[in-house]
Amino acid sequence: MTYKTLVLLASSKQQRKYFNALVRNVTLPLELLWYKRIILPSIFCSPNSEVLLEQVKLLEKRKRTAKKGLPGFFWGWFRFSSYLQANWTYRVAYRFLKQRNVALGVWNGKKFRQAIWIVAAKDLKRDVVFFETGPLPGYSAVDPVGVDYYSAAPRELDFYHKYTCSEQLPVLTMPLTDKPSSLPSSYIFIPFQVIEDSNIYLHSPWIKDMRDLYEKITLLSNDFPDKFFVIKPHPACPEKYDDLFALSEQTEGRIRFVFDLPTTCLVEHSETVLTVNSTVGMEALMARKKVIVLGQAIYGVEGIVKLAHSLHDLENVFNSLEQWHLDENLINQYLCYLKNDYAVRGDAMKSPDNEHWIDVTAKLSAMLSGHRMSAIGLEDD
């Protein structure tokens, strides 16, 4: 389907700033919609209550991780009021989209408000375009399906075997450093993730949070006493892990937290990177490191990384670490696809330049004219 206009739903000041710049720099029919704009709701639609309740549950799950200790009656009221908000938001979105021949553009699309608008858009059979930074450092995504694990980037290994790359990709761009004396001679690097990271509450089926991850690391440390584990807390995470820091001090250095070394340095000198689905996993691939993925990630392609869906799987991966030989050519193919076909140049939120707008224009032009998948180097349905 072709559309006259792409409506860009901005749900934060940062999103509004980027979408405003997008409207100014891209010569396509774009319209900015600030989420606080007054729009009357439709009274003639019937939202699926189960779908809305699922979004309410996800919102509650996210908020509970950061608001511990609140009484049960608070969460009962939270669910009730959030459902009313979801119903109202759906009816507003339905009326707005139904009256126009438009596609919907959202940033990320996983947060509560955007997710409800997406539900309404799909009920009306309208296309949605997703914007996000990444998946490569210094790049951004314009995707017709979703972002992160929801993205349209192929997860089939055979695709990357067949893909033809016309360039040699460099390793992760970072200054090479001497190995700090505080690090073990060989270690597994584990980056902690932000407590409210949507990649944890949406895309982590068996690791519920970083404390749960630490527990699994402890079990691995007991089973593999010759391995050392280095953990770096996320610098932007407000959660306090003093209890875990104290526990690690009892492991005689086999599990240790590092605060003052750059993540790139910790990746560079590691034997393996173990992550739920952090962006550090992608950086580790760029540095040609072995990557073990515990959750669901855009780079979760078995054969490029090792996937562990349970503690048993994880133990099996550790038992075969010495026999695991990276296929660097395959990693090159994967990174080349992301760089040349999937991503757009420039960090959308930090440094969108003329190259960024040229790439975004090309992808949006294709998507708005009905060529949604070919915009990211794939065959259209």
TrEMBL record:
Designated name of the protein: Capsule polysaccharide biosynthesis
| Superkingdom, taxonomy of origin | Bacteria
Q: Which InterPro entries match?
A: Capsule_polysaccharide_synth
Q: Name one Pfam family in it.
A: Capsule_synth
TM ranges:
none
Q: Which residue spans adopt a coiled-coil conformation according to this UniProt entry? A: none
A GO BP entry = polysaccharide transport
Q: Which SUPFAM superfamilies match?
A: UDP-Glycosyltransferase/glycogen phosphorylase
